[in-house]
Amino acid sequence: MKVMILTGSNRKEATSTKLAEHAAHFISQQGEKVTVFDLYKRPLPFYSPDEVYTEHEHLNELKQEMLAADAVILVTPEYHGSVSGVLKNAIDHLGQAHFNGIVVLSASSAGGAVGISSLLQLQAIVRNLHGINTPDWISIGGLQRKRFEVGYDGYEGGQEIEDRIHLVLEAFLNLARKIGRPAGAIQ
């Protein structure tokens, strides 16, 4: 199975990106193929329905990798109670062909205690693109974010949040394995 993780931060050392990398490591340890598409390292042009971006290398890579994915994780920082503009822009470049019948897990990193507003919005977007939302999500905030900051030194709550993340990732992988790729999807 191929898992695509799309991380939507425009910050070099974002905790949301570190969370995505942690998820990728866990998923690869489960024997699955995983790709992290970091929008900080591979920026995309601003979406416009009037433009055709056939020559944009990063956008072509994103579209190809999304079409090849059997399951997707969308990871965002929560900005002002919403999804990052960088992630929303990337999703706007995509369409139903990239999400239809695909299992999607939403995850966020918030400056406050949790990032539920961004997760609810991501799930609404996934539903509109005919993706299959997992029943659970990952939200880190407050002290939990320390685990994913540069210079992490093993603070007290690190194992608890890792256990929770691993539990959600296992459920996500199990659901994706059971549902599989939709018939007729591009491989």
Brief synopsis:
With 187 residues, this protein is α/β, with parallel strands linked by helices. It has helices at residues 15-29, 57-68, 85-93, 96-99, 116-128, 158-179, and strands at 2-7, 33-38, 71-77, 103-110, 132-133, 138-141. The chain contains six helices and six strands.
Structure description:
The chain has 187 residues and is α/β, with parallel strands linked by helices. The chain is built from 6 helices and 6 strands; from the N terminus they run E-H-E-H-E-H-H-E-H-E-E-H. Strands 1, 2, 3, 4, 5 and 6 form a 6-stranded parallel β-sheet that branches. The radius of gyration is 16 Å and the shape is globular.
Set down the secondary structure blueprint.
Elements: E1 2-7, H1 15-29, E2 33-38, H2 57-68, E3 71-77, H3 85-93, H4 96-99, E4 103-110, H5 116-128, E5 132-133, E6 138-141, H6 158-179
Parallel strand pairs: 1-2, 1-3, 3-4, 4-5, 4-6
